[in-house]
Amino acid sequence: MELHLKDKVAVVTGAGKGIGLATVEALGREGVRVVAGSRSATPELTALSDKYDVTFVPVDLATPDGADALVRHAVDAHGRLDILVNNLGATDSRSGFLEVDDSEWRRVFDVTFFSAVRASRAALPHLLEAGDAAIVNISSINARLPYPMVVDYSAAKAALTNLTKALSEEFAPRGVRVNAVAPGPVRTPFWTAPGGLAEVMAASAGTTPQEAIDVVAPRTMGISTGRVTEPQEVADLVLFLASPVAGNVTGTEFLIDGGQAKTI
Ligand SMILES: NC(=O)c1ccc[n+]([C@@H]2O[C@H](COP(=O)([O-])OP(=O)(O)OC[C@H]3O[C@@H](n4cnc5c(N)ncnc54)[C@H](OP(=O)(O)O)[C@@H]3O)[C@@H](O)[C@H]2O)c1
Asked: How confident is the model at residue 235 (pLDDT cuts 50, 70, 90)?
């Protein structure tokens, strides 16, 4: 499918690894000029900069000024902005609600929700000027399936999905579509890094991290396809939504969860 994305300018947050990295690669392959923000570069992101029109910007997007600096970099470098992918989000695994104090709630909301609020606020004047523009927010299945072990993260993702609809209502009439992608488990460092969810699950199931992500997670989480999602699969959906091919799609959240959610 021709996505008609060539020469557009995109900002991707949380771009060094996982879904963000896969999205940068997919956009770069389509000829998009990508400005990629995370606190540190990874060898994989650096390699993409050699291959495509990808610029890495070191930025802490949990701070009040981070998003502004990232968007400013894109507009200064390319003179316009067409696409914003609010990919950043993070949590720690909790034992339950009583463990999470105010500072943890604030930290998770800063990274997972306010990073998207701030990036959208910084980007929207430029997206409106460009016209035919798009924001894609990476939410989570936890926006509708809130788990006690990620209670704060689930609430932040529900807020992000809610914001998606509000922004879509306000800005779709002015040429900016806003959609969300809500993945179930995805094979990223969030799971696979040392200390990640695969290790946590492996310890309680008495197995290896590899077995935990390939077998235990799909079975215990009710993933109908029997496997977790690959980052590239999320990136492909993001590209479709960011592209003019999805020109009449706005205000919607798309699950990509292998059938984990059991209601429509
Ligand atoms: N993986 C899953 O199973 C899953 C499922 C549902 C939804 N999601 C959502 O998908 C999105 C991407 O998740 P992922 O699993 O791909 O994440 P990941 O593998 O943990 O990668 C996170 C990226 O964000 C960057 N980052 C972290 N904190 C940052 C900060 N304060 N400022 C700037 N960059 C920061 C990291 O680089 P630095 O540390 O160098 O900054 C890294 O590049 C998140 O919103 C997540 O909630 C993931």
From this structure: very high
| Probe target for ligand 1 pocket from 56, 59, 138, with the most ligand atoms within 8 Å of CB | 138
**What's the whole-number mean pLDDT along residues 180-190?**
97
Active-site residue, 52 included: no
pTM above 0.90, yes or no: yes
* Whether residue 118 is found in the same domain as residue 243: yes
Same domain, 199 and 239: no
Q: What are phi and psi of 47, to 5 degrees?
A: -65, -35
pLDDT score recorded for residue 244:
98
Residue in 56, 153, 171, 191 annotated catalytic: 153
Count of structural domains, the chain: 2
What atom in ligand 1 is closest to the CA of residue 234?
10
Q: Report, as an integer, the average pLDDT of 43-61.
A: 98
- Residue 196 CB less than 6 A away from ligand 1: no
Provide the residue type at 136 as one letter. Answer: V
Q: Do 243 and 162 belong together in one domain?
A: yes
- The answer on 246 and 221 residing in a single domain is no
